[in-house]
Design goal:
alpha/beta; Peroxisomal Thiolase, Chain A, domain 1; four-stranded mixed sheet; 11 helices; 13 strands; globular; binds coenzyme A
C-alpha cells in the first residue's frame, strides 16, 4: 500500500428524543444513581417511531460530506456499520446511497456490532490505501433501542441510538497509520441477540429479538482484550505511550474506558467521553465521539489518535490515526 487514507470530514446525528436515567426509573426497577455509578451514563437518545437507521445515517453523512467540502457525486464507496439495518435487504448502505442520489459505486453493510465502525473503517482504509477508492463514506448507525427488552433492567439502561460518519480520502500525507481488527466466536453467547430471520422469524416479526448479555463476563473480557489491543497498536507502530494525543474509545462503560486510559498512561483529559450523554450507541459510538471532539476543537490536525472498540462476537479492534 502506498497511498494514505485520511479523515477529511466527519458528521454525526442524534435523534431528538432524550431518555434520562430518571425516565428509566418509571420503566424498569432501577435508580438514576445505579445507572450512573455502574456505567457513567446519564441519558441516551431514542429514535422516534418511523425514524430508521438509514435516516440517522443520512443526516450524519450529509454533515460529514459538508465538513469535507465534498458532494455526494464525489463518493466512490459507501460502507455502513450497523446491527440494526432498516431491512433484511437491500443493505442500509444501498438505502443511504439511493437517498444521497449516488449511482453505481459499491455500497455494502458490515456487521460487527459495537466494533462495527472499526471493521468498516478497516475495509475503507484498505480500499483507499490500495487506490481502489479515492473518496469513501463510512458510517456507523444504530437504532439499538429496537433490539432491547424494555423489561430487562440489566440491558435496556445501557444503550442508545445515533449515527456518526466520516469521509476518507486518498492522500500523500499520513492519515490512518495502522488498523488491527479481531474476532473470536467462542464468546458468541455472552453478548447476543440469539434469534434472527433464519432461526426464529416470528420473534423477529413480533419485535422480540432482544439483546442478551452476561454483563460481568463481558466487562472482564472487554477490559483485558481492549487493554491488549491498545498495546498491540503501539508495538505495531513502534511508538511510546507518551506519543498519543487522544483516545477515542467505544463508549460502553466509563469504568472500561478508564481502565484502557490507564493502560496507555493517559489522563482522562486526553480521552473523549460521550457515554454520559449518548449511552452505548454500538457501531455509532466511535464516530459520534470523534465528531464531538473535532467540532468542539479538542482534536486538531496533526494529533495522533487511537480508536478502539469491543463488541458482540466477540469482535474488537484498534486503529492509530494521524489527523
Ligand atoms: N438497576 C438496578 N440494579 C441493577 C440493574 C439496574 N439497571 N441492572 C442490574 N442490577 C442489579 C443486578 O441484578 C445485581 O443484583 P444482585 O447482586 O442482587 O444479583 C446488582 O445490580 C449488581 O449487578 P452487577 O452485574 O454486579 O453490576 P456490575 O457492577 O457488573 O455492572 C454492568 C453491571 C452491566 C453495568 C457492567 O457489568 C457492564 O458494564 N458490563 C459490560 C457491558 C458492556 O460493555 N456491554 C457492551 C459491550 S459492547
Amino acid at each position: 500500500m502506498t497511498l494514505s487514507a485520511r479523515i477529511t470530514g466527519s458528521g454525526s446525528y442524534l435523534p431528538a428524543k432524550v431518555l434520562t436515567n430518571k425516565d428509566l426509573e418509571g420503566i424498569v426497577d432501577t435508580t438514576e444513581d445505579w445507572i450512573y455509578s455502574r456505567s457513567g451514563i446519564r441519558q441516551r437518545h431514542i429514535a422516534a417511531e418511523g425514524e430508521f437507521t438509514s435516516d440517522l445515517a443520512l443526516a450524519a453523512s450529509r454533515e460529514a460530506l459538508r465538513s469535507a467540502g465534498r458532494a455526494p457525486s464525489d463518493v466512490d464507496l459507501i460502507v455502513v456499520a450497523t446491527t440494526t439495518a432498516d431491512q433484511v435487504f437491500p443493505s442500509t448502505a444501498c438505502l443511504l446511497q439511493q437517498r444521497l442520489g449516488i449511482h453505481g459505486c459499491p455500497a455494502f453493510d458490515v456487521q460487527a456490532v459495537c466494533a462495527g465502525f472499526l471493521y468498516a473503517l478497516d475495509v475503507v482504509y484498505r480500499y483507499v490505501a490500495t487506490g481502489a477508492s479515492r473518496c469513501a463514506l463510512v458510517v456507523g448507525a444504530e437504532t439499538f433501542s429496537r433490539i432491547l427488552n424494555w423489561e430487562d433492567r440489566t440491558t435496556c439502561v445501557l444503550f442508545g441510538d445515533g449515527a456518526g460518519a466520516m469521509v476518507i480520502e486518498a492522500s500523500e500525507s499520513p492519515g490512518i497509520l495502522s488498523s488491527h481488527i479481531h474476532a473470536d466466536g467462542a464468546f458468541k453467547d455472552l453478548l447476543c441477540v440469539p434469534v434472527g430471520v433464519s432461526t426464529a422469524y416470528q420473534e423477529v416479526l413480533d419485535g422480540r429479538a432482544y439483546t442478551e448479555m452476561q454483563g460481568k463476563e463481558v466487562f472482564r473480557w472487554a477490559v483485558s482484550t481492549l487493554g491488549d489491543a491498545v498495546i498491540e497498536i503501539l508495538d505495531a507502530n513502534g511508538i511510546e505511550k507518551g506519543e498519543i494525543d487522544w483516545l477515542v474509545p467505544h463508549q460502553a462503560n466509563i469504568r472500561i474506558i478508564k481502565a484502557i486510559a490507564k493502560r496507555l498512561d493517559l489522563s482522562m483529559d486526553q480521552v473523549v467521553v460521550t457515554i454520559d450523554k449518548h449511552g452505548n450507541t454500538s457501531a455509532a459510538s466511535v464516530p459520534l465521539a470523534f465528531d464531538t471532539a473535532v467540532r468542539d476543537g479538542r482534536i486538531r490536525s496533526g494529533d495522533q489518535v487511537i480508536f478502539e472498540a469491543f463488541g458482540g462476537g466477540f469482535t474488537w479492534g484498534s486503529m492509530l490515526v494521524k489527523i
